[in-house]
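Query structure, 586 tokens:
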């Protein structure tokens, strides 16, 4: 009966269009509310996908999604790194508004056991859709915090932000989950511990010699023994720090319980697909919201044997092709359950590909096509321009391409609107409803200006001058690439946002993205007659934007972003955290 009702609703809509009626831009399309499936890749470059110009990495399923739907070419992340970008995606607000940024260089949440995270006071689209009768689920990566004061208060947990079901990593996939050749934390910690070990060992040796030769008055064997104990502890910790990180951060949860600690990465892909299939089948009577947050294509690029060695782009290409296959499996589940026509599907990445993810001659990060920069760079297009694909058969015209500026923050008001909900009126929401633009009843995006933050620092701003068809980008600050002439900050994980490794521009750099999307040629007053007018217009917009900002605690600063052992989730007695409940019979 439900499928029959869906069929009549789409038939009625099609007849209305044929008779010349235009869908209302003020309300959702007629008929039952759609299921909503949101697919987000991790660290995928816009140039890694076939429908965005790649001819060597095979992404047939994502390409088919674009051919059957609407493709956005100027779709932008609100931040160039995962934690702030995902916070903006879920709330429709610049991450600075929720405090999901840092002013101290701690660009993302550093550990699972930190007290920072998406504040419970923030309203996610999942909270609103749940209140409107949707069943809501998140499968995959979270990386927006877990607990505040105790290991099980779960104040930042997905289930405290509107999701009915969660299966995945509360933290993030990272190279340290596999003790890989690249490292986010292990290598730095090992280096620091080694230095401390050497200093304490030297002190222990000095005290011992001083005691034996009587050259150090007051030296006691007690002090020597304690120094030796500290030395041994530092040495042991240095040897074990990799395993400790894997247990501390690389684990899976099912709702509020730890399912696997540490996780066995090779079997995570089939487990995630199984969870997606199970969720869809359980809730196919709808409506449901399912957010599939892939662990692909972040390092360590865990790829199953079926896909290893298939791509000419090495392990990164293999991992991308496996993620595309996963997209295909998920779409096939919709087909099998008869949900394709009643489900809005959206695909994107949280930010641009990582240029610095390389070791020796091997590149383990993505490609951002013609766009300058990459992950971590808030101003340059390569850090923030991402795929944006929508498919909703019978409602969105297949094969449409839209070149207007849009944002990941726009998903919030769009899905809230489709669910029959209301955007909160007690706070600033920066996203704009995309439905009219996607349906073709609006010519332009509602974004006239977009701000591009790096941590809490505004690096650039964009102005869509509709009457001229121009998109201007003004850069106030840019990172200094290393080495000179490179297009990234090699030797670092990402480029910095502040300090002596950035350049502040006065006057700012100006680019016309409608003519120079690669940002290769900065304009000057001599080459662009409108230079001063554009810069002054953007400066006024920035000043107006700053008037809307309300100071809030910064969740990623050190006070809330340092490992706290009393917050460490553990399915055994700490530090012996080990379990595999997914393998247990249920």
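Result returned for the query:
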């Amino acid at each position: 009966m439900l499928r029959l009702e869906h069929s009549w609703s789409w038939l009625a809509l099609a007849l209305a269009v044929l008779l010349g009626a235009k869908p209302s831009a003020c309300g959702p399309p007629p008929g039952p509310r759609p299921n909503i499936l949101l697919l987000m890749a991790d660290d995928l470059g816009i140039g890694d996908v076939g429908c965005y110009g790649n001819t060597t990495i095979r992404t047939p399923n994502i390409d088919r999604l674009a051919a059957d739907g609407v493709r956005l070419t100027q779709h932008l992340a609100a931040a160039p790194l995962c934690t702030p970008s995902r916070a903006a995606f879920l709330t429709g607000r610049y991450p600075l508004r929720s405090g999901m940024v840092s002013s101290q260089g701690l660009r993302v949440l550093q550990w699972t056991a930190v007290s920072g995270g998406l504040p419970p006071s923030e309203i996610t689209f999942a909270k609103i859709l749940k209140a409107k009768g949707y069943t809501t689920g998140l499968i995959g990566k979270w990386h927006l915090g877990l607990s505040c004061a105790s290991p099980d208060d779960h104040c930042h947990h997905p289930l405290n932000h509107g999701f009915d079901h969660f299966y995945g990593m509360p933290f993030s996939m990272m190279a340290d989950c596999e003790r890989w050749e690249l490292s986010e934390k292990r290598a730095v910690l090992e280096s620091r511990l080694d230095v401390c070990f050497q200093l304490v060992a030297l002190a222990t040796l000095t005290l011992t010699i001083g005691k034996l030769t009587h050259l150090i008055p007051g030296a006691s064997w007690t002090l020597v023994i304690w120094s030796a104990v500290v030395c041994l502890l530092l040495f042991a910790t240095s040897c074990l720090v990799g395993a400790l990180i894997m247990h501390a951060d690389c684990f899976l949860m099912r709702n509020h319980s730890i399912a696997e600690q540490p996780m066995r990465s090779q079997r995570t892909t089939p487990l995630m697909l199984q969870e997606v299939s199970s969720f869809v089948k359980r809730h196919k009577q709808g409506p449901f919201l399912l957010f599939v947050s892939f662990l692909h294509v972040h390092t360590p690029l865990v790829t199953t044997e079926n896909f290893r060695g298939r791509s000419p782009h090495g392990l990164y290409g293999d991992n991308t092709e496996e993620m595309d296959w996963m997209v295909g499996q998920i779409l096939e589940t919709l087909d099998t359950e008869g949900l394709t026509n009643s489900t809005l599907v959206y695909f994107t990445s949280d930010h641009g590909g990582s240029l610095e993810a390389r070791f020796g001659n091997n590149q383990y990060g993505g490609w951002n096509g013609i766009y300058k920069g990459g992950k971590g760079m808030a101003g340059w297009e390569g850090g923030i321009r991402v795929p944006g694909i929508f498919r909703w058969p019978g409602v969105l015209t297949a094969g449409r391409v839209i070149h207007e500026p849009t944002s990941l923050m726009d998903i919030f008001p769009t899905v809230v609107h489709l669910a029959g909900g209301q955007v909160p009126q007690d706070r600033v929401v920066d996203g704009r409803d995309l439905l009219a633009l996607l349906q073709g009843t609006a010519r332009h995006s509602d974004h006239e200006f977009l701000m591009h933050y790096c941590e809490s620092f505004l690096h650039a701003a964009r102005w869509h001058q509709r009457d001229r068809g121009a998109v201007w980008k003004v850069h106030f600050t840019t990172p200094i690439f290393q080495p000179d002439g490179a297009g990234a900050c090699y030797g670092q994980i990402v480029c910095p946002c502040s300090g002596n490794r950035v350049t502040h521009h006065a006057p700012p750099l100006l680019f016309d993205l409608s003519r120079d999307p690669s940002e290769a040629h900065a304009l000057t007053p001599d080459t662009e007659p409108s230079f001063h007018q554009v810069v002054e217009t953007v400066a006024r917009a920035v000043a107006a934007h700053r008037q809307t900002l309300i100071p809030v605690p910064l969740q990623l600063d050190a006070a809330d972003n340092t490992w706290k052992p009393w917050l460490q989730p553990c399915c055994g007695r700490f530090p012996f955290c080990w379990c595999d409940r997914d393998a247990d019979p249920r």
